[in-house]
Amino acid sequence: MDYRRTYLRDLFNAPPGTQTSAFGWVKTRRDSKGVHFAQLADGSTFVDLQVVIESGALPEDVLRQITTGACVRFDGTIVESPAARQAVELKATVCEVFGPADPAEYPMQKKGASFEFLREIAHFRTRGNTFGGVFRIRNALSYAIHKFFQERGFIWVHTPIITASDAEGAGAMFGVTTLDLMNVPHSESGIDYSFDFFGKPTFLTVSGQLEAEIFALSFTNCYTFGPTFRAENSNTPRHLAEFWMIEPEMAFCDIVGNMNLAEECLKYVIQYVLDNCKVDLEFFNQRIEPTVLETLDHVVASGFERITYTDAIKYLDESGETFEFPVFWGADLQSEHERYLTDRKIGRPVIVTDYPKEIKAFYMRLNDDEKTVRAMDVLAPRIGEIIGGSQREERYDVLLQKIRDSHLSEDAYWWYLDLRKHGSAPHAGFGLGLERLVMYVTGMKNIRDVIPFHRTPGSADF
Ligand code: 4AD
Ligand code: MG
Fold first, then answer.
1. Confidence of residue 110 (pLDDT cuts 50, 70, 90)
2. Residue 442 · residue 268 · CB < 8 Å
């Protein structure tokens, strides 16, 4: 056996008469007079291969093991299918069962099982239609993202997962330690980290941005694509404790260039899945969210709206809506506010810029009004924030003051400050949340259902 094999998706184009083997997992089995049918899937496509087994063609003990969930190989001939739903089927004469699955115990039997239930059997849910589609689309989006940046000369930089700095300054980090928690060494001032692996407190990264900035100031344009971690205790359908982020960083670029790149990138990757994942997208449009295809077509065809935070507050104020969280200049935009702006007021993605400095990270460039910073969030209908970015503060004195005002340690950011001392450049970048993008493209409503194995408060199975 060799990895080089014909995927089931390729068999649909094979001419009748082709002798072939088909490997996969049985989705369903049904018996009719004188003939048995098995639907076979191998994850390569949404469509199953229908396998037809005439009575007596296989030994009884083999036939008995062809049940939902079983892993098998069929040998046979591709023939034209009399049924309307597929052009060809496989007439099998040989079957090898690699791994039987007891129908009394296999958990993926029930049709219409809830996504919540399927999360508890995440080691099997990928064999179903919805999750097959989600992960083929997630794969296609990831590929398209690399393709987009590589075609534009961006260097992919692998930023560290273990870090000593809090890039977002929000303090929501998972600690990394080899200290014995039952016997933590103490000094007068608290925990004595000199005994710890790195000799100081370290964490799982919340963002690769600060390290990406080092690369942007050497390679001009770069991007990260990796896992990031946030220990916020937010149990919402849009937050994960471990999620994947793409963070491009560009030297000689301002906030306008940053917005242009964000818009171009989203349109490019969405066009890529429209071109390459048609069958899966049609499934999501039919079964999960009836506006998916229309939305995606609309996004690639129309320009994103661009408004300032101050405009956004004005729209929200004038909306006549009652929001749970109060609206006033200086308040952070909550998900309900973002949804109003995109879903109701504007009806397509909108980029909000120039937020109050108090509600944004220390590294964002201060505007001349000294009240707002050059932040840009891309908000999308149904999802809210999908991208967060900014032009960076490239002026040493201003950055130092912002670090002090944010009560961050100057010492910890010495290297970040150094970049502003030696060859600083105007630069900008953003972070695109991969899972938020997959939600947007598929119409899936819970972020736990677009990552293979979710990490959320209280959940770290598989
Ligand atoms: O807005 P955020 O926090 O920005 C940053 O991390 C910057 N360092 C990005 C940059 O400028 N290079 O996060 C960026 C995006 C959000 O817009 C959202 O799509 C996603 O990351 N995100 C999350 N996705 C899932 N679960 C969470 N807890 C997320 N937090 C942020
Ligand atoms: Mg943000």
1. confident
2. no
Nearest-CA residue for ligand 1 atom 15 is: 433
Helix 129-151 to helix 278-287 angle, to the nearest 10 degrees?
130
Of ligand 1's atoms, which has the minimum distance to the CA of residue 230? 28
d(CA 115, CA 448): 9
Is a pLDDT exceeding 80 seen at residue 170? Answer: no
Closest-approaching ligand to the CA atom of 223 = 1
What is the assigned CATH class of domain 127-171+206-449? alpha beta
Order of strands, sheet of 221-229, starting from the edge strand that comes earlier in the sequence: 155-156, 221-229, 242-251, 427-433, 384-391, 372-380, 350-356, 305-308
pLDDT category, 234, cuts 50, 70, 90? confident
Q: How confident is the model at residue 233 (pLDDT cuts 50, 70, 90)?
A: confident
Task: Assess whether the C-beta atom of 228 lies below 6 angstroms from ligand 1.
Answer: no
Give the residue whose CA is nearest to atom 22 of ligand 1. Answer: 433
Centre of ligand 1 from the C-alpha of residue 285, in Å:
27
Spatial contact of 93 and 62, defined as CB atoms under 8 Å apart: no
SS3 259: helix
pLDDT at 166 exceeding the cut of 90: no
CA 139 to ligand 2 centroid distance, Å:
24
Query: Which sign does the torsion angle of CA 395, 397, 400, 404 carry?
Result: negative
CA dihedral 87→90→91→92, nearest 10 degrees, is -170
- Whether 431 lines ligand 1, by a CB cut-off of 6 Å, is yes
Fold of 8-106: OB fold (Dihydrolipoamide Acetyltransferase, E2P) (2.40.50)
Give residue limits of the domains in the chain.
8-106, 127-171+206-449
Using alpha carbons only, what angle is made at residue 155 by residues 150 and 159, rounded to the nearest 5 degrees? 125
Residue 26, ligand 1, Cβ within 6 A = no
Do 127-171+206-449 and 8-106 fall under one CATH topology?
no
pLDDT of residue 141: 98
Q: 436 CB less than 6 Å from ligand 1?
A: yes
Cβ contact 96:72 at 8 Å: yes
Ligand 1 pocket residue status of 29, Cβ below 6 Å: no
Is the per-residue pLDDT at 3 higher than 90?
Answer: no
pTM: 0.97
Task: Determine the residue type at 55.
Answer: S
Q: Parallel, antiparallel, or unpaired: how do β-strands 350-356 and 305-308 relate? A: parallel
Which among 243, 258, 446 is the best mutation to test ligand 1's pocket, defined by most ligand atoms within 8 Å of the CB? 243
Q: Coil, helix or strand for 90? A: strand
CA distance 241 to 319: 33
Mean pLDDT over each residue of the chain, to the nearest integer = 95
